[in-house]
Design a protein that fits this description.
Elements: H1 3-21, E1 23-26, E2 43-44, E3 53-55, E4 58-60, E5 63-65, E6 70-75, E7 80-89, E8 99-106, E9 109-113, E10 117-118, E11 124-129, E12 135-142, E13 152-161, E14 167-169, E15 188-190, E16 194-197, E17 202-206, E18 208-210, E19 216-220, E20 226-228, E21 234-238, E22 243-253, E23 256-266, E24 276-279, H2 281-284, H3 290-302, E25 312-314, H4 350-359, E26 363-368, H5 385-395, E27 399-403, H6 416-431, E28 438-442, E29 460-462, H7 471-479, E30 493-495, E31 503-504, E32 511-512, H8 517-529, E33 534-536, H9 545-551, H10 554-561, E34 569-574, E35 577-583, E36 589-595, E37 601-606, E38 615-620, E39 625-631, E40 633-638, E41 643-649
Parallel strand pairs: 16-23, 24-25, 24-33, 25-26, 26-27, 27-28, 28-29, 29-30
Antiparallel strand pairs: 1-13, 2-5, 3-4, 5-13, 6-12, 6-14, 7-11, 7-13, 8-9, 8-10, 8-12, 15-18, 17-21, 19-22, 20-21, 22-23, 31-32, 34-35, 35-36, 36-41, 37-40, 38-39, 38-41
Helix pairs in contact: 3-4, 5-6, 7-8, 8-10
The structure holds beta-D-galactopyranose.
Length: 650
């Protein structure tokens, strides 16, 4: 036999042998439902929208369809030799502007990273040796243009395996360590230090105080027209003349007494600090009813949350009649003979409900919108604005969330005058209603609402779409607030949507938040730094200890409620590490050291980054303890997706 033929036979045989030694395991054959995605559904051999995987005109039979930001953890245990895939943005968003970066980590190190890949562009081939890898992490990350249209595919993705087969695993979840110290038994006064009310309108303020009960209260320097119930700490009445006064509040119990100043500003402005409360949507959505709202109010008081300053109980969508509904509970006449809006049968008596909530010293809110219907298809205010504002005021509501939604059918376009119009109409209607009603604009940030929300009468305005209880949603929304700080201040706040800690679920079924404990610390710390309205989104009748600790740290809440009313700015952005800082009234600064990455990291803030110099006392805000005096800088380990929240003093 000729030598060449012999060589070819040997080569073929070896190749055959090698091919036999490795199994091809398609990534899509594993349980990819363990992946976390920014949107859509993890697709086995399909995109996140369920279409065939298509990159740059090429259809792939196999692959894993995701949406940035996405993460999938895999356990290889050293059994896989190679990973292959073509990474790219699916053609289903070719006409849009999706862009993302793909990353692969192995044993805590970055193994591979794509360039920024864009809709309609070529995919990036990845072929990496993973024979020494125990845990492999496949990630896709959004870029500066945000998560929209980032339909990220790992096309043609497979492992060459010899021995241990790869399996997908849950992302690691650290235990929820409670950092908030328990409040002492001696009295402590919490909540806002400044409060705005309008002359001639009903006034209600519950002194928030922790400590052993019974407790008695006094208030020195209350303006004429206001009365304090010394047992409940509830102040009510009417202030008839505009002006500012400083009231000295005192709380007393068997363990001692404490006094604290409250500045009362009677004028045009309300919501001088961001509203603190609860809203029914993130837990109950359409399953809300009068009993649940009453139970929420009871829980806010009985759990002790109200003693930390939480005060609004807000009903979201689905309390009104649903036009044309055959459901005997939701359907019926949408308005009465006098054109007043009716409630559906789940809310038999709004006045009884608001009286109940007010009786506890809490305030209460309602939801509607400028369109003919709400988002969930219930009656809204279109062409009845004045009547409805009057009705909301007569019922006794203190907060109105006004949601664009169905007004989309009415608006001619998204020009600024069209975007502003319905909000100005309701502003005027509320102006005639003679009640202090916090006006919350909800239109998801259209037309850069932060630039004109205050002018449209808004005390706060949603800057984004709806939040959900996952890391991508929360981090994209929260960290996406950078730059909006110049538009926030006392009486007018940016609102990055409600909180997603505790048991949420958009009703009727609830589940514990899918945020990890560290992500929850990030959520509450960031929203506090952002001076955002804080609306609890969970079922308060089912508060666990950890969630309670997140919502009752007075030093954290003080950052949110600081009378200066500044929103934090991003001072440093270094890959996944960020430093945010907020100026506070007493000259100190609140600082968040954030780690948006998948692995723990050391984060260092230099005073120079904050335009400061010299020596500062650094306080660990969650632990409520000082860490010492630090010259020039402070450095601390920060867990994955976690935060270290500080306050620094001269
Ligand atoms: C959305 C709004 C949510 C919730 C919902 C009710 O538009 O952003 O926060 O209010 O409507 O249908």
């Amino acid at each position: 036999m000729n030598k060449l033929i012999v060589l070819i036979i040997i080569l073929l045989a070896t190749n055959h042998l090698q091919a036999q030694q490795y199994d091809t395991i398609w990534l899509s054959s594993l349980d990819i439902s363990k992946a976390t995605l920014g949107w859509g559904k993890a697709g086995a051999d399909v995109s996140c929208m369920g279409n065939p995987i298509s990159l740059n005109g090429v259809i792939y039979k196999k692959g894993f369809g995701t949406h940035a930001s996405s993460v999938l953890y895999l356990k290889l245990a050293g059994g896989s030799a190679k990973f292959h895939a073509i990474a790219g943005i699916d053609d289903e968003e070719k006409a849009s502007s999706g862009s993302a970066v793909f990353k692969i980590y192995g044993n805590h190190g970055l193994l591979w990273q794509s360039a920024v890949l864009r809709s309609g562009g070529a995919g990036a081939a990845v072929d990496i040796n993973i024979s020494a890898i125990d845990t492999l992490i496949l990630c896709t990350e959004t870029t500066a243009d945000g998560p929209n249209y980032d339909h990220t595919d790992w096309a043609d993705a497979y492992f060459l395996v010899k021995g241990r087969q790869p399996i997908s695993i849950d992302r690691p979840m650290e235990p929820g360590v409670i950092m908030t110290p328990a409040a002492p038994l001696s009295p402590r006064i919490n909540g806002p230090k400044i409060y705005g009310a309008r002359p001639g309108n009903n006034f209600l303020f519950r002194i928030a105080a922790t400590g052993e009960r019974p407790m008695t209260f006094s208030a020195n320097g209350l303006p004429a027209g206001l009365k304090l119930d010394s047992h409940t700490g509830i102040i009510h009445g009417k202030i008839n003349t505009a002006g500012t006064c400083v009231v000295m509040l005192t709380a007393r119990n068997n363990k001692g007494n404490i006094s604290r100043k409250l500045t009362l500003v009677c004028g045009d402005q309300i919501a001088l600090t961001p509203p603190l409360g609860w809203n029914s949507w993130n837990c109950f959505a359409g399953a809300v009813d009068q009993q649940k709202v009453k139970a929420a109010a009871d829980a806010m008081v009985n759990s002790g949350l109200a003693d930390h300053g939480w005060s609004y109980i807000n009903i979201d969508d689905c309390w009104m009649v649903k036009p044309d509904s055959k459901d005997s509970i939701l359907g019926g006449e949408v308005r009465d003979a006098n054109d007043n809006m009716n409630t559906n049968k789940k809310f038999p008596d709004m006045k009884v409900l608001t009286d109940y909530v007010h009786g506890l010293g809490l305030k209460t809110g309602i939801y509607s919108g400028p369109g003919p219907k709400t988002c969930a298809g219930f009656t809204a205010c279109y062409q009845h604005e004045e009547k409805d504002a009057k009705r909301f005021a007569e019922w006794g509501f203190d907060y109105l969330k006004y949601d664009w939604c169905d007004y989309e059918r009415i608006a001619k376009d998204h020009s600024l005058p069209e975007l502003k119009k319905p909000y100005l109409v309701m502003k005027d209607a509320l102006g005639k209603a003679q009640r202090d009603i916090v006006y919350s604009l909800c239109q998801y940030g259209m037309g850069d609402v932060w630039e004109w929300g205050a002018e449209a009468g808004g005390n706060c305005w949603r800057t984004t779409g709806d939040i959900t209880d996952d890391w991508t949603s929360m981090e994209t929304i929260g960290f996406g607030q950078a730059g909006h700080e110049v538009f926030a201040g006392p009486g007018h706040w940016n609102d990055p949507d409600m909180l997603v800690v505790g048991k949420v679920g958009w009703g009727p079924e609830l589940h514990p938040t899918r945020l990890t404990p560290n992500e929850q610390y990030t959520h509450i710390s960031l929203w506090s730094l952002l001076a955002s309205p804080l609306l609890i989104g969970c079922d308060m009748t089912q508060l666990d200890e950890f969630t309670y600790s997140l919502l009752t740290n007075d030093e954290v809440l003080d950052i949110n409620q600081d009378p200066l009313g500044k929103q934090a700015s991003r001072m440093v952005q270094n890959g996944s590490l960020e430093i945010w800082a907020k100026d506070l009234e007493d000259g100190s600064k609140a600082i968040g050291l954030f780690n948006r990455g998948l692995f723990p990291a050391q984060v260092t803030v230099s005073w120079g980054d904050l335009k400061l110099s010299g020596t500062y006392t650094v306080r660990n805000v969650w632990a409520q303890s000082d860490e010492g005096r630090f010259d020039k800088e402070y450095s601390a380990p920060v867990p994955a997706h976690g935060v270290k929240l500080l306050r620094i003093y001269r």
